[in-house]
Amino acid sequence: MFPRLPRPRPRPRRLRSAVLAVLSVFATVVALAVGVPQAEAASSLPCDVYAAAGTPCVAAHSLVRALYSSYNGSLYQVQRASDSGTANIGLLAAGGYANAAAQDSFCAGTTCIITKIYDQSARHNDLTIEGAGGAGAADVGAPADALPVTVGGHQVYGLEISAGMGYRDNSTSGVATNGAAEGMYMVTSGTHVNGSCCFDYGNAETNNLDTGNGHMDAINFGTECWFSPCYGQGPWVQADLENGLFQSDAGYSKNTANTGTGAIPFVTALLKNNGQNHFALKYGNAQSGALTTTYSGGEPTAGGYSPMHQEGAIVLGTGGDNSNGSIGSFFEGVMTAGIPTDAADNSVQANIVSVGYGGSTGSTGTLTAGSEISLRATTACCTADYIRHQNDAATVSAITSSSSALDKGDATWIVRRGLANSSCYSFESRNYPGDFLRHFNYQLYRQPMVGTTQFRQDATFCAGTGKSGTGTSFASYNYPTRYLRHYNFNVYIASNGGSNAFDSATSWTDDVSWVVTAPWAP
Fold it and tell me: What is the DSSP string of 123-179?
C-alpha cells in the first residue's frame, strides 16, 4: 500500500443605468435584511453588478458558471492523458452553467487535468499552469474531476488544489499596479484547507519571485497564522501583501471575534485595497447570509505597504514566489478596477447565495451517479448504523431523525462514477466537497481527491448483490476479494477469513452487506 496522503479581487454611466444599479442594490440589501433568497435576474451576475457600480471586472475566472449575463465563451480547458488532446469546456447557455457533460465525454476512459482557466472579461487574463518560482518547482495541473459539485442545480466541477499545483498569468491587462485601487473575491471551501503557504487568488509579482513588501495584493485562505495572535482555529480570510498574511495593519488579528470561518463547505472570501492607506477583509457563507467584515483600516505599518507596489500578475493556488505547499478549492473569483462599494459587494454575495452551491443533486437513494445516499448496515446488531466520517476516518454509528445536522451530513454521500472505472462507484462526502471514501492499509478514510492512480483505485468500489442475500456489497477495485465491512465500529476492506481481526469469517456476509437508503442530510 502507498503511504496515506496527508490531510491532513469609473467611468460615468448614463443616468438610467445608474438608477437601475441603485435600485438593484437596494433590493438586494432589503432581501438580505429580511432573509429572503434573492432571485437574481440574468443581468445581475457578479461582473454586471460591479460594472454598474463603476468598478468593472478586469479578471473573471470560474469553472462552474458565467460571471457576466452575456458571456457564452469557454470557462476552462482540459487535457487528457491518453493522447494529450485538449478541449475547451464552455456553458450550457449564455450567462449559465458549465457543460460538465462535455468534459465527461472528452475524458471518458482516461484522465484529464485542467490546463487553462479562461478570463471572461474583455481583458483576456487567462490563467495557465504556473512555472517554477523562487520557492517552488514548476507546478502541475489539477485533476479535472477531483471536485464534482452541484451549482445552480447543475452537476459541474470546481478546481481542487493540492500541494504542487497552481495557475498564473504574468502578462496581464488592466490589473492594478503601483498603488492603484482594486477589489477581489473568490468562492472557496472551508473544509479543504491547510496551514502551508499559500492558497492565494489575486495580484502577484510578474517574475515568480518575492520582490518585496507590498508587491502582492491577494486573498489568502487557510489555517496558517503568520502573525500571532490569531484567534480560533481558522481558516481565516487574510491579505497576502507579500512577506506576510495580514489580518490587520499590525499583521496579527485585532479582532477577537474573528475565529475563522470554521468548516463551511463554501466560503466567499473578499479583499479590497485602495493601494495607499486602507484595505478591508470580508467573508461570508456562500450558501446563505450576508458578508462579515473582519478588518477595515490602514495598510500594514511596516515599510513598503503604503503605498502598495503591485506588479499586476494574477496567481491562483500559490504564493507570489510559487510557494506551493497549500491546498484549497476554487469555484469562481473576480478582480476589479477600483474599490467596489459595500452595496455592490452585498449584491454579489446575494447572487452567490442564490446560485445554490452544494445544493441537492435532485436524485436520492439510488446507485446512480449524482444520487445522494446513506449506507445502512444489515447485521442484526447494527441495523440503525450508517457509514459516516468522523475525524477523517470512516466509522459506523446510529443515525436517527433526532441526530444532529452534523451527524446526518457526515452520514450522507454523493454517488460518483468510479474514479478508476466508470462502471463502478466512488463516494464523495456531502459536506466536504472533493473528499472521497478511500482505503489505506485496508481501513477507510475520508480524504481529498488528488488525482493519482493510487488514489483513484483506492476510492473505487464495485457493486454486487449483498453477500448475505440482502442489500449490496462493494468490492474494492484494486483488491477485488475484499469488501467494505464494518468491524468494531470502523470500516475496512475485508476478506472472508484472514490474518487480520477485521477479516474474521464470523458474520462476514452480513457485515459486508449494505442497504442503499435515502440520504440523511436534506
Answer: T---EEE---BTTBPPPBPPBTTS-EEEETTEEEE-EEE-TTB-EEESS-SS---TT
Question: What is the residue type of 9?
Answer: R
pTM score above 0.70 = yes
> Is the dihedral angle over the CA atoms 505, 441, 437, 427 positive or is it negative?
negative
Phi, psi (rounded to 5 degrees) for 21 = -60, -45
Nearest CA-CA partner of 287 in 258, 261, 267, 263: 267
Say if CB 404 and CB 411 are below 8 A apart: no
Q: Are 180 and 198 in contact (CB under 8 A)?
A: no
C-alpha cell at 169: 498569468
Q: Are strands 425-429 and 514-517 parallel, antiparallel or unpaired?
A: unpaired
Give the C-alpha separation, 458 to 453, whole Å: 9
d(CA 273, CA 370): 40
> Quick check: 76 and 107 in contact, CB under 8 A?
no
Q: Residue 8: which residues within 8 A CB-CB, separation 6 or more?
A: 194, 327, 392, 448
Instruction: Classify 385 as helix, strand or coil.
Output: strand
HEC profile for 331-380? CEEEEEECCCCHHHHHHHHHHHHHHCCCCCCCCECCCCCCCEEEEEECCH
- Residue 280 C-beta-side C-alpha neighbours within 13 Å: 18
Centre a 10 Å sphere on the Cβ of residue 196 and count the other Cβ atoms it contains.
18
Residue type, 251: G
Dist CA 468 CA 211 (whole Å): 65
What does the buried/exposed string (b/e) look like for 320-348 if buried means 16 or more CB atoms within 10 Å of the residue's CB?
bbbbbbbbbbbbbbbbbbbbbbbbbbbbb
Residues identified as active-site: 242, 321
pLDDT digits (tens, 9 = 90+) for 241-269: 999 999 999 999 999 999 999 999 999 99
For the stretch 89-147, pLDDT in tens is 999 999 999 999 999 999 999 999 999 999 999 999 999 999 999 999 999 999 999 99
